[in-house]
Design a protein that fits this description.
The complex is a heterodimer of chains A (725) and B (348). With 725 residues, chain A is mainly alpha-helical. Chain A is 60% helix and 4% strand. Among the domains of chain A are: 82 residues, no CATH class; 239 residues, no CATH class; 161 residues, no CATH class. The N terminus of chain A is likely disordered. Chain A: GO terms for molecular function: structural constituent of nuclear pore.
Chain lengths: 725, 348
């Protein structure tokens, strides 16, 4: 098997190397052979696969046959989802669970942090921590409940032995088991009875193919409508004994009362028989149970203390023995009734053979021990031995994940439980619910302080993180893969001290930037978790996208938000060159808005301050045109002189400025520029002319006629200024 | 289990997804390129072709997306060794189209591979040539992709003093360090598939700011494997591990390496080969690429591509056996094949 390797000695988590690698056939619809396969983890952990046909093959096909199979098909891209998700849970329900479990998780983490703070400040410990986890566990259990409650009839049908409820999920069953073993400290005291209750609830999912007590009763219930003489049917007695074995007292009593001897027309002729049936029914309904409480309406007698229970138990057993030895059996003419009832008595007396014959699954046999053979609390070690024995007796394989979970928990082997969770309930990413379960289940396991070392110790193998953190990270990755759940992923990552924010950063940096709402959401997450670098990166990508797609103003806005001085400077430089190289008003108008957007603070190196002054000068010049006011014209001159005096004004712009100044130089009323100012302009023109003589200098982009007009205007103004002065 | 996302036209030769997986660039045998865009932002949405244009007269053998903070742009490597960069741009929203930025005409050896580095301040481009040389270019203008300055030109050998013959390389693999940030040291991995062993082994090159030069800081190859031709490389994203994880595919299989900084002061690296995964077992099928990437018959099929997921925990590999294999490490740190996707109709 490719890639199979031996586990190192002293492996922490026992992983079997025998498991075959799952093989999935991809139906891509491309004609074989395949030339190339390309893959991409497109969104978080969804795998996209591109299968490409050989291109030579295309040509050959056409040449050979004249027609090509697949026509113009060169390849296909498919998205692959691996692993079968639980068909009992719909996609919508999965999302409901994913969303619903966030707040209990966050609440629990908050409590943990608060307690950690308190324990640092005072000597208070995490003594009652399990109660918080229990509260959290119950919230999750509620989510795992099947959403549609069965319809209840007001009149109870006596023939309904099994209530038809929606099949519980394996997830819920496993969750409850872990709550029982690792969280609920009260539950541990009453563990045997808790396991009896667990079997009562989940017997229907213990096996898909083999007979269970539930399937046996279900089958009988379907037959009940058509059965005339119920006590003649061996299945009736088999179902009775099976139900009694696992402690379903209500069902047993209900079934017993369906016995033909209860019918009014037969009471007289079958008085003894009826008396025996009723006696057994009474004994069943008064069975003593050592448990915390019994739900209202449930049969049996509840005892909370061992002495009381033992006393009641012995009395009850005495009554059974007495009935078993009674002479009434001789007078019971109906063989099946006689044998069936005595079988029930033997089960209640703890006869191993009868119990074993009446049970099917090892768990059923296992819990029957707590009911009839060893009703007093056993140690974990004893229970583990008993479980192994039952497994052998019922020759069950350990193939069922729930079975391995129970055995692992009874064996007090947290490593096995983790391995089971990873193996049976995952770890394939597609199985969202299952990963959720593992991620959250580790919280339950962590409630047991003995397991903290294993769960929370950092491991080099895992890249320096703990088992708990690893599962949270993998789960968050799954949440990221769907747009509807990606928003809740950060909650889990925030509780990963080592690598959570790292994954969050990568995930956010791979979000598309075409959608404004999505960008805002991402930026909000960045703000919440103080991911400044990624925040800036997302803004830069957005800015670049906008800039390149013709939305330059928006591009500048995003670069400014990102504080991307390098790009803003380059934009300033571009504007600079563009305006400098063209002296038309249209070009300037085109860029004016962008100059405004860029603001005065950015681009000190690129001379953005100059651009602002240039914009003011141009605006002022426009007013001069329309207003013809000498004051305004004088203001333009001041701006012009400032620009030309400023060392940041590039030489590239001198000529356009001089060109613009012609209008001012030729002012009719009086010379606007004095001699000194005119000399400054002349010196600039002279400097530009000198530069033209240097090799590699840029050529002046102004027609000679225009140049001549500048020179003439300068000369005229100078002479007028001299005269005036 | 699988959902069809896109249908590609006849003559496809290569394809590549952009940073968010919402755009797919496709290179064709007739020298044209196409871009397919995802129909919506939701996951699992289908792709449809948004543009197609002619890049060059010869077949495009590889197409690579440029990091997104430099726009929507791709690099196309043609079979004749020409490299050209294209970007989607327009003066306004209606005139957006794919435009040529620059063409690196072939003047000597052919361009085999190109990859772009992640440091955000200056975009760096590494180009590997068929003579075993590698050139590193730096983008001068952050807003346009046409001004590149050659920063370095060296051979993929550790010993730069000795004189080697002139190798003939059929393919090259480059992987930049996925760490982002302006303060990150620039580093990349390079391995060749050539007839001169010294050029083949995967080396980690790092830019030394002090001397302004590129230095080989680690060689990911055991002495007995130095001759092995490198078929593919992948540097795993690091979300907080104290070491880097690198996958190197040769004909022997896929080696997983851990590389870590041994000493901060003298910037010394250590590396350890963690495992050699058996890769893509099976007889190599004849490929139609030119020049042939894997023309030899070996026990192991040629690995075409290695791709890490975003957490760097799962590695996907594709190979000549028509399979996509997924590799993971379990809780004990043991690497194993996690799942196999058969794209070749069940042929092994």
């Amino acid at each position: 098997m490719p890639g199979r390797l031996m586990e190192p000695d002293g492996a922490l988590i026992p992983f079997s190397t025998e498991v075959d690698v799952p093989l999935y056939n991809i139906q891509h619809g491309v004609k074989l052979p395949i030339f190339r396969i390309f893959v991409s983890w497109s969104r978080s952990n969804l795998l996209q696969v591109a299968c490409i046909r050989p291109f030579e093959d295309d040509f050959n096909n056409e040449e050979d046959t004249g027609t090509s199979d697949g026509g113009d098909l060169g390849g296909k891209v498919v998205e692959v989802k691996l692993g079968a998700s639980d068909p009992q849970i719909s996609e919508a329900q999965r999302r409901r669970i994913a969303y619903g479990s966030v707040s209990p998780f966050a609440f629990l983490q908050g409590r943990k942090n608060a307690l950690a703070m308190m324990s640092r400040m005072s000597s208070s410990s995490f003594g009652d921590w399990w109660q918080h986890v229990l509260e959290y566990s119950r919230s999750i259990l509620e989510l795992l409940e099947n959403t549609n409650p069965p319809s209840r009839s007001v009149i109870e049908d006596p023939r309904i032995v099994l209530k038809l409820v929606n099949k519980p999920t394996g997830l819920k069953a496993a969750w409850q088991l872990m709550e029982m073993f690792y969280v609920d400290k009260h539950s541990l005291t009453w563990l045997p009875e808790q396991l009896v209750d667990w079997v009562a609830e989940y017997d229907c999912i213990l096996s898909e193919t083999e007979v269970t007590v539930h399937s046996k009763l279900f089958k009988l219930q379907e037959k009940l409508v058509n059965l005339q003489v119920i006590e003649d049917d061996p299945e009736y007695w088999e179902a009775l004994s099976s139900a009694l074995t696992v402690g379903w007292l209500d069902a047993v009593v209900k079934l017993l009362r369906l016995h033909g001897s209860y019918q009014l027309n037969q009471m007289d002729s079958r008085e003894t028989e009826n008396g025996l049936v009723e006696a057994v029914a009474v004994l069943v309904s008064t069975m003593p149970r050592l448990r915390h409480d019994l739900p209202a309406g449930k049969l049996g007698q509840c005892y909370k203390t061992k002495p009381d229970f033992i006393k009641a138990w012995e009395k009850w057993r005495g009554q059974i023995t007495k009935l078993d030895c009674s002479a009434f059996w001789v007078h019971c003419g109906h063989r099946q009734t006689r044998e069936g009832l005595r079988n029930l008595l033997q089960i209640m007396l703890g006869n191993m053979n009868n119990i074993s014959n009446a049970s099917f699954h090892w768990m059923e046999l296992f819990v029957s021990h707590f009911l009839y053979i060893k009703p007093l609390t056993m140690s974990f070690e004893e229970m583990h031995r008993l479980a192994q024995k039952c497994l052998q007796l019922k020759s069950s394989s350990l193939s069922n994940g729930l079975t391995r979970l129970i055995v692992g928990a009874l064996g007090e082997n947290i490593e096995v439980v983790i391995a089971e969770c990873s193996k049976s309930f995952g770890p394939w990413y597609g199985m969202k619910c299952i990963l959720l379960m593992i991620t959250h289940a580790l919280e339950l396991l962590a409630a047991d302080s003995n397991q903290n070392e294993i769960l929370f110790s950092e491991r080099y193998n895992l890249g320096g993180i703990s088992i708990v953190e690893l599962h949270r990270i993998v789960y968050a990755q799954v949440l990221f893969s769907h747009s509807l759940t990606s928003q809740i992923a950060p909650t889990y990552l925030a509780s990963c001290p080592k690598q959570g924010l790292g994954l969050l950063e990568i995930s956010l940096s791979r979000q598309p930037v075409q959608n404004y709402t999505l960008i805002l959401k991402d930026l909000e997450i960045c703000r919440l978790y103080e991911l400044d670098k990624i925040c800036s990166f997302v803004k830069k990508i957005t800015g670049m996208h906008q800039w390149k797609h013709g939305r330059k103003g928006s591009g500048i806005y995003w670069f400014q938000k990102a504080g991307d001085e390098s790009r803003l400077n380059q934009i300033a430089q571009q504007l600079f060159e563009c305006i400098g190289s063209s002296n038309t008003n249209e070009t300037f108008k085109q860029w004016e808005g962008l100059i405004e957007l860029l603001g005065p603070d950015v681009g000190t190196a690129g001379g953005l301050g100059f651009l602002h002054r240039y914009r003011d000068f141009k605006n002022s010049l426009r007013h001069v045109q329309y207003g013809r006011a000498t004051d305004t014209a004088r203001h333009s001159v001041e701006l012009l002189i400032q620009l030309l005096k400023s060392p940041s004004t590039p030489q590239l712009l001198w000529l356009p400025l001089l060109h613009d100044s012609v209008k001012l130089l030729n002012w009719k009323d009086r010379p606007l520029l004095n001699a000194a100012e005119t000399n400054l302009l002349l010196s600039k023109l002279q400097e530009l002319s000198m530069l033209q003589l240097l090799p590699d200098s840029p050529q002046l982009d102004l027609p000679p006629l225009e140049l001549a007009s500048i020179r003439l205007a300068l000369a005229t103004n100078l002479s007028r200024a001299f005269l005036e002065e | 289990m699988e959902k069809e996302l896109a249908t590609l036209g006849k003559g496809v030769r290569c394809c590549s997804w952009n940073y968010c997986g919402k755009r797919l660039a496709v290179g064709y045998n007739d020298g044209s390129a196409a871009v397919h865009d995802s129909d919506s932002l939701s996951s699992s949405s289908t792709f449809s072709r948004s543009s197609k244009w002619t890049v060059h007269a010869s077949s495009i053998k590889n197409i690579i997306w440029i990091p997104p903070d430099f726009g929507d742009a791709i690099a196309c490597i043609c079979v004749d060794g020409t490299l050209s960069l294209w970007e989607e741009a327009g003066e306004d929203a209606h005139s957006v189209t794919w435009k040529k930025c620059v063409v690196f005409e072939r003047s000597g050896p052919r361009v085999l591979e190109v990859q772009f580095g992640f440091p955000t301040k200056y975009l760096k481009m590494v180009v590997a040539y068929s003579d075993g040389h590698v050139k590193v270019y730096e983008l001068l203008d952050l807003l346009v992709l046409n001004k590149w300055q050659l920063q370095a030109n060296f051979k993929n050998v550790v010993d730069s003093v000795s004189v080697f013959g002139k190798p003939t390389c059929t393919s090259a693999s480059i992987a930049w360090s996925p760490r982002r940030g302006e303060n990150q040291q620039s580093s990349f991995l390079l391995g060749f598939n050539s007839d001169l062993p010294q050029f083949n082994s995967c080396k980690m090159w790092e830019f030394e700011e002090h001397h302004q030069r590129w230095l080989p800081v680690a060689e990911l190859s055991l002495p007995e494997d130095r001759d092995d031709r490198v078929h593919a490389l992948a540097w795993a994203p690091n979300i907080g591990r104290p070491f880097e994880v690198i996958a190197v595919a040769t004909y022997k299989g896929i080696a997983i390496w851990h590389v870590w900084l041994e000493s901060e002061t003298d910037h010394r690296f250590s590396s350890e080969k963690i495992v050699l995964l058996s890769g893509h077992v099976g007889e190599v099928k004849p490929t139609f690429s030119y020049p042939p990437v894997c023309s030899f018959i070996m026990r192991n099929a040629c690995v075409w591509q290695l791709e890490w997921d975003i957490s760097g925990m799962t590695l996907a590999s594709t190979g000549g056996d028509g399979m996509v294999r997924l590799w993971q490490s379990n809780l004990n740190g043991v690497w194993h094949e996690h799942a196999t996707l058969d794209c070749g109709g069940g042929k092994q």
